[in-house]
Amino acid sequence: MLQQFDPRNKELKLYVNGEIVHRDQAKISVFDSVVQGGDAVWEGLRLYPEGIIWLDRHLDRLFDSAHALAFENVPTRESVQDALWETLEVNNMDKDVHIRLTLTRGEKITSGMDPRLNQMGCGLIIVPEWKPPVYDNSKGIKVITSTIRRNSPLFLDSKIHHNNLLNNIQAKIQSNVAGVDAALQLDKDGFAAELNGTNIFAVKDGTIYTPYAKACLPGITRGYVMELARANNIRMKEDDLSLTTLYTADELFCTGTMGELTPIVELDGRKIGNGKNWMVTQLNGYFVQDRSEHCVDAKTRV
Ligand SMILES: Cc1ncc(COP(=O)(O)O)c(C=O)c1O
User: Fold this and answer.
1) Above 90 in pLDDT, residue 1?
2) What was the pLDDT predicted at 19?
């Protein structure tokens, strides 16, 4: 399903490097590292009526990614949160919002790869949009397996949530050409890593399986779903999952902040299970019931 422009987003105000400006006026320098080399890290956050879900975990991952990439002069956690809440307030946003929070290595004194050319501190961009979950989770999605392998730590560690998204975008192009919703990417050994923008789970005989976080982003929703399963006495296991394991699963589903929990009804033309999606429906019930515990509002700093 292709996302459409939501007219509520026409007059958005965005945060760019210390200023809040109308989307038409939002600009960054052509010398910014994100333009020069995709040299930035990011988080996708979701605002529910109760607040932003797992803000602490998202900020941990953002700052860990920046640290792994040796960013310098990183803004404080406090100042990032102040900017975030201020931007939501200016837009009168209280739910159904997805926020793209990007921290770049900042502007360079001259074009080039060397991080020593970054002498002006990091850049911070906050783009909040009215955006309910992007998939029809009652219907589910169709997926193909991409020929593009997901990065392993051998090349570019998928644990860093960076803006160098071409690995995933190439896989997404293959799913577009195939006329389906998303692409599964395998790891270097041929086991499932994740979909191009979400984590994958399989259900077999009452046990839930997900790939080890070897070549996937350790998604915040992935971690939460694993915790929800264990808290509700559902067997949950990380494992190497081959395509045959996935084709013959009782259920497949994927997870992410953008789309929440989404059944995968078809993989490479094979129908998955009996189409009842019992486990993902059950997990989604736990998710809806429990999530307010993990949402924070503007009064809270994490
Ligand atoms: C490649 C990839 N996998 C999985 C996810 C889902 O992660 P999360 O649950 O933290 O949103 C994302 C989200 O940005 C992603 O980019």
Assistant:
1) no
2) 98
Q: Is 220 in the pocket of ligand 1 (CB under 6 A)?
A: yes
**Cα end-to-end span (Å), the chain:** 35
* Global pTM value: 0.97
Compute the distance from residue 215 Cα to the ligand 1 centre, in Å: 12
- Are 172 and 285 in the same domain? yes
Please check whether residues 78 and 189 belong to one and the same domain.
no
* Inside any domain, residue 6: no
Distance CA 14, CA 24 (A): 9
Looking at the fold, whether 194 and 271 belong to one and the same domain comes out as yes
Residue with token string 């998204």: 165
263 C-beta closer than 6 A to ligand 1: no
Give yes or no for residue 217 CB within 6 A of ligand 1.
Answer: yes
How far apart CA 263 and CA 266 sit, in angstroms, is: 9
As a whole number, mean pLDDT of residues 242-269 equals 98
Residues 29 and 116 in one domain: yes
294 CA to middle of ligand 1, Å?
A: 18
Phi and psi at residue 204, to the nearest 5°: -140, 125
Q: Is 221 in the pocket of ligand 1 (CB under 6 A)?
A: yes
Give mean pLDDT, residues 98-125. Answer: 97
